[in-house]
Each structure stands twice: as structure tokens, then as C-alpha cells.
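Q: I'm writing up a methods section and want to include an example of the input and output format. Could you take the sequence below and give the corresponding predicted C-alpha cells, formatted cleanly so I can copy it straight into the document?
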Amino acid sequence: MIMHQIAQLNFKELKNQGLKALATALGEGLQEKRLVVIYNHDVDQGLLNQKLALDRQLFSLTNIAEYRADNSDDSGFFPEGKEYATSSRKGDRKRMWH
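A: Here is the clean output for your methods example:
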């Protein structure tokens, strides 16, 4: 099994190099890995915790199945195990909106 690392960006370091460097690194990370972890940023941890709590509420809704993804355009809610990486026949363990 090939494990791919998630792109990790040091926000303050890249910002000090200029917005173009930040935008380039973000774009390349998303293009290559499709997911980027941004660290060393100034986003308040309390705000991030509030966002996480709202996400948990959303994914615990009993009627969430009504928003399942439409295969014609791959948009909507993908329950756990229903979204597939192009390199795998096994469903991902994440739940997500597309």
C-alpha cells in the first residue's frame, strides 16, 4: 500500500515570503495532494473548536441521508465508505460534503 503524505504549509513562513509564495504553495499542495494542512496560523483555536462542534452537529443529523450525493455530478453528502479514491476500490473512511 502506498501512503501519501498530506501537504503541510507553514502559514507565517510562507506569508513572510509574500502572498504569491503562499498562493503558489497552497495551489501546488492542493493539486498534488488534494488536501493541505495549514499550521502556524493566527486563527483562534476557540473559533476552530466552534467550527468542529458545528460539523459534529451536522454529521449527526438524522435526516442527513436526504442529502446523499447525486452520482451525476458528485455533489452532496458522502456517508462513510461511499467516497472512493481513484486509486482504490475500497471506500474512504471519511464523511464529507462535495
